[in-house]
Specification:
Elements: E1 5-11, E2 14-22, E3 62-66, E4 69-73, H1 75-81, H2 83-87, E5 88-96, E6 105-113, H3 118-131, E7 133-141, E8 144-153, E9 156-162, H4 184-197, H5 209-222, H6 242-255
Parallel strand pairs: 1-5
Antiparallel strand pairs: 1-2, 2-6, 3-4, 5-7, 6-9, 7-8, 8-9
Helix pairs in contact: 4-6
Length: 256
């Protein structure tokens, strides 16, 4: 794996040199865009809006429009803005993990120690395990300030990017049902159904089944077979038969 960032984790006055590696990868199929008529690959070019000519990667720069004029920025400018945040993941805030709602979580990265930071890395990892807390930190990743959560996962420290509060939309404008709409008997039945379906979480049981089925369909088409169309009729539960469907769900679970 190739490191995407190098710097240090700051824990009090202790600096732990680390590299960040992406912890996730996509399981969806890599689909290309093609011309339906002759199956030629569709190419996207970087074109100068003024001349209409294609621009080489080496000639592309980042810029910010200020007062109707573009101000060019280079890599050194991003580091000059906050050098400490460009090189150090400063952990100075600790919370219980369940205080952070899942709506805030984004990508995750493995933080791996450099040779000089092995002992301090192990100390921070074991201290987090013993405390049951996670660290909250901010640093600059790819020219943008990033809010993160640092937690131990087995023997590695996992750094998960989370959204800032202003990035999560408010729910005030959504039309949502009130809790008073729920009948006591229906709630009791729903809780029984949840209890029946409750089991220890094992991520290995969950596979990307859609991609597997799509690949089967692709292979069938490649061999000249016409895939069978499976139709799904969606039946919505009505208010007056909600209890009946809950009872049927409980009965089905018991016999399965």
């Amino acid at each position: 794996m190739k490191a995407i960032w190098k710097g240090a984790i700051g824990f009090g006055l202790v600096n732990i040199p680390v590299k960040l590696y992406s912890a996730t990868r996509s399981s969806s199929l890599d689909l290309d865009m093609v011309d339906r008529r002759d199956h030629s690959n569709i190419q996207y070019r970087r074109v100068n809006a003024g001349t209409g000519r294609e621009v080489k990667w080496d000639d592309i720069a980042k810029a910010y429009m200020l007062n109707d004029e573009y101000i060019l920025l280079d890599e050194e400018d991003f580091e000059r803005a906050a050098p400490e945040k460009s090189k150090i993941i400063e952990v100075n805030h600790f919370v219980d993990e369940d205080e952070i709602d899942t709506v805030y979580y984004e990508n995750s990265y493995y933080a791996v120690p450099e040779a000089a930071g092995v002992k301090a890395y192990a100390l921070l990892r074991e201290a987090l395990k013993r405390s049951g807390k996670v660290g909250v930190a901010r640093f600059v990743l790819r020219t943008a300030e990033t809010l993160t959560v640092l937690k131990p996962m087995d023997d590695v420290l996992l750094l998960s990017k989370i959204r800032f509060a202003e990035e999560v939309r408010d729910t005030d404008e959504l039309d949502l049902p009130a809790s008073s709409a729920v009948k006591t008997a229906e709630l009791k039945m729903a809780l029984s159904l949840i209890e029946q379906y409750t089991q220890p979480f094992d991520i290995r049981k969950f596979k990307d089944e859609y991609s597997a089925e799509l690949l089967k369909l692709i292979k069938a088409k490649a061999s000249g077979k016409k895939p069978k169309a499976r139709k799904l009729k969606m039946v919505h539960t009505k208010s007056d038969d909600l209890m009946a469907q809950l009872k049927a769900s409980l009965a089905k679970r018991k016999t399965s």
